[in-house]
What does this fold into?
Amino acid sequence: MPVVLFGTIFPIVIGLFLRLPKLLIEIKQNKQWTFDWIKFIAIALPSCYILSMSVLPFSSLGVNSIKIPEIIMIGSPTIQIIAGVVFGYTFLDSLKK
It folds into this structure.
């Protein structure tokens, strides 16, 4: 389970780090903070769904209770890595100043 969690959380952190420099520039501006719900719901939530479907088969919560889509269960973790980077980047991109 620790390896699965690391494989899920590490791409999210990479996505956060990719967006961090632009966020720091936006922090220096004196504007009001907003949150772009449409972008978060349209992009971040589906990628979060893909990430959760990659972790659930290894947890006690998802054993024989949730049907996992076949495309996520294919041997290559490329889909999970891309979804993690997209989720991390989009999460910080949804914060606007």
